[in-house]
Amino acid sequence: MISLALAYLRDRPLTTALNVLLLAISVAMLVLLLQFSTQATERFERDAEGVDLVVGAKGSPLQLILSSIFHVDQPTGNLPYSSLELLRRDPAVARAVPLALGDNFQGFRIVGTDASFSDLYDTELSEGRAFDGEMEAVLGASVAAQTGAELGQKFVGSHGLEDGEDGDQGHDHAPFETVGILKPTGTVVDRLILTSYQTVWHVHGIEHAHYDGGDHEHEAHDEEGHGHDDDHDTDAEHAHDGTEPTDAFSEQADILQAQGNGLEQELTALLVTYRNASGAVRIPSLINRQTEMQSAVPAQETARLLELLGASIEGIRLFAWLLALTGGLAIFVALLNMARSREADLALLRVMGASRVQVFATVIMEGVLTAALGAVIGWIAAHIALMVAQSSFATLADLGLKAWQPVSAEGMLIVAVLCIGALAALIPAMRVYNIDPARILARS
Amino acid sequence: MQLSLAGVGLSYNGRSVLQDVSFDLRTQESALLLGPSGSGKSSLINIICGLQTPDAGSVTLGDAQVAAGGVGDQVRRRSMGIIFQTLRLVSALSVKANLLLAQKLQNGAHDRSLIDATLERLEIAHLTDSRPHELSRGEAQRAAIARALVVKPALLIADEPTSALDSTNTQRVAELLIEASQEAGASLLVATHDDRLKPYFQRALTIEDGRVVG
Q1: CB of A8 within 8 Å of any CB in chain B?
Q2: Helices A13-48 and A298-341 meet at what angle, rounded to 10?
């Protein structure tokens, strides 16, 4: 019966092609939306995992999140280096990861940081070692794959965060050396080049204490008169227990405020992980009210971003479903006409011994096959479009959008389209089911 | 396989179409059902094929009771090859695909060698891949006979198989049906208004106003 249904579809190629095209367009649109929203959401969640708060210069909180976590926008400005120590000293902070941005290599961002960055993203080396001294760099897996860089290879960064931006301002005087390559993480880290923040300062001619390879800059702390044990594992080592830190924090914030404008050693942002819930209550408001810095909560900003995108996505999704229903209606009309014009054929099938159910199934099969063809073509077209878009638009590549990554909801979508095909065929099939061959024979 | 009709009756809107029709068609026997248009022979063929349910009486083929509905479908599929004047082939399929479909509907299997031999025998082997609309009336009629034969029927039934054919082609079709049914070991029942066919058949049953009169 499948071959008979296929034969009938081939028998009216133009109608079949138009119906298939309508469904294919709607399926392609729905798959594109599904892929984009699913992959973007998953990516946002993966990239922001473990980051409770982002601290940066005042400006748009969404821009701060986009630039510091997803690395797809310009930073809001710089922070004094001492802000890192201020936060690391707070007992409610489990981890504060410094970020110093400003340069790129072939469009891949160079991120000045320290070993805490690897802890945050749980990175592992596939080759070489972690950066240890100045001008040493570790490449994310995608960077290494796309630039073909190898261990020991030197490269020069360019000023700016995008490829070609301020392209004439290369840092020829300070070439980086590749000392390590990371295993793929499926996060934004794959597309980053990691080095120490002192290296970033050095590249930009900023005076600083030399990097000792550790997590924190003791010399810098000492210069500021905040000598302390950097091990934040236990609150007991701090003068305060985190329950009444407001005064101490404010004091530090005032000092920072006073010193801030004169400091040349700057960072772009800090990624903060809380040690306990009190941090979430206290730290954001203190930063926003008592310093020139701002804090942004990734979960909130990501939700806001998705909400902003959501209205447009829902609009397109509604349009695509309407298109799918139009496709279903077109199948319905075509099969209804077929049921009338092909009565003699169907009566002959009954004469040849086909049961009512078999004839009914043939018509349903035609609807389902049309829908299946539309669904398969639409699915393939959507993934090809993703592949082309990924290679044509840098932002999509930066988002790490994968062209051929199946999403489970795609299966549901295809089943829904097949159901539309079957439903569209139902009434014509019922007409055919009730065909009386004797009546048609008498008429003919 | 013997076909037996006993007291078959049918009426439409109070008008009697068939009345007390009874006869037997023995295994491998050929018979002509002769009657003018409107005599009730097409209704009788429909009942024998299980496409219509009689108001009275019974139809049996071998041990099987033929009736409209599920049972009729089954008997028709397994034991009958049917040729109608107008419904010859499925329009979307080639000649060969029509024959394959007939076999598939009968028992779920294909016998390609039988199909090839039948097409050869009916001299339409060169039309294997042709679509029904590409065939002449005579070619389409032979293709319909081939479709009925490739299911190895126990009973071959034809309704007005020579309608609109000239005398040469009428004779050719009659001979073809007789030969084919004999080779297949099938009984043959042909309904027609054309009494030129009489000499080719072992028996002729005449139907008038819904009654078998001779």
Answers
A1: yes
A2: 170
Contact A114, A288 (CB under 8 A): no
Work out the mean pLDDT of chain B and round it to a whole number: 87
Tell me how far apart the alpha carbons of residues A442 and A223 are, in angstroms, rounded to a whole number: 107
A350 touches chain B (CB under 8 A): yes
Q: How far apart are CA A82 and CA A270, in angstroms?
A: 11
Cα first-last separation, chain B: 23
Q: Check if A434 contacts B (Cβ < 8 Å).
A: no
Contact A134, A155 (CB under 8 A): no
Contact A354 B105 (CB under 8 A): yes
| The pair of three-digit structure tokens given for residue A231, joined into one six-digit string | 């091990």
CB contacts, 8 Å: A352 with chain B: 77, 82, 101-102, 105, 147
Q: How far apart are CA B82 and CA A362, in angstroms?
A: 22
Element (H, E) at B99: helix B95-107
**Alpha carbon distance A140, A118 (integer Å):** 11
B102 contacts in chain A (CB < 8 Å): 352
ipTM: 0.82
A353 to B78: CB separation less than 8 angstroms, yes or no: yes
CB-based contacts of A294, cutoff 8 Å, min separation 6: A55, A56, A57, A58, A59, A61, A64, A76, A287, A288
A13 close to B (CB below 8 A)? no
| Chain A residues touching residue B74 (CB < 8 angstroms) | 353
What does the pLDDT look like over A133-173, one tens digit per residue?
A: 889 999 999 899 989 989 999 998 888 766 655 445 566 77
Residue in the block written with tokens 């349910």: B53
Radius of gyration of chain B (CA): 17
Both tokens of B5, joined, read: 């009709």
H/E segment holding residue B111? none
Please give the model's pTM, rounded to 2 decimal places. Answer: 0.68
Q: Could you say which of A345, A349, A438 has the minimum Cβ distance to residue B52?
A: A438
Is the pLDDT at A194 greater than 90? The verdict is yes
Residue A351: which of B74, B82, B106 has the nearest Cβ?
B82
Helix (H/G/I), strand (E/B), else coil: B15: strand
Instruction: Choose among B42, B48, B49: nearest CA to B12.
Output: B42
pLDDT digits (tens, 9 = 90+) for B19-39: 999 999 999 999 999 998 888
